[in-house]
Amino acid sequence: MTRSLLIPFVLPGILIVAKPTTTLAVSLDHLTELTGKVNAIVTLTGRDNFTSEYRYDVSVRNHSPDSIAADSLVIVLDRITNLAGEDREGLTGESFLKRFDVLGQDGETDDGKPYFHIPVGTTADLTPQTDSLPASVRIRNRDYVAIFTPSFRVLGKKRPEPEPKGTEGPALPAPASTPPSHNSVDKLIQLLIKKGVLTEEEWQKTNQP
What is the DSSP string of 10-33? Predict the structure, then answer.
């Protein structure tokens, strides 16, 4: 996170306003380390030889079987290595990362490493075996070393599994059918006789023991 503060100071006859920029360290403890299951894909997109600035697109690919919440994905510039694969100065032990200017970062971790938010695409999740949109990373080499390699860690949150629906109880047996009452049978017979479906004589014959 970056905060800017305007600080005026006065020279004889001139008012000058300086705008220092301070990068505050931010803890990302609420995110999970996903490196290995979700890998950073680094693509060099441009180079300015005059300023020794290198521009990269960094996306992430989900190799895990889980979906990742897209708005939680963060890449952290963890280290910079030289051609020999070393990430520290041999004599002083200083990290090479301190000898580079990282431009456009979204903030720094609590141990002073730049981080960037991965842009959210058209879906809320980064599903298995898919790639995210790229974050733009600009690195300026103050020492003008020709060959170096940036390495990124990936942080984020897995999408929680949906809660299983409650199991339904055992089905209750259907109530046993009750035989029709005598009055119901009489009413049905009278209706059939009235409609001419059954005659009184036929009913008497069928009702005899």
Answer: EETTEEEEE--EEEPEE--TTSEE
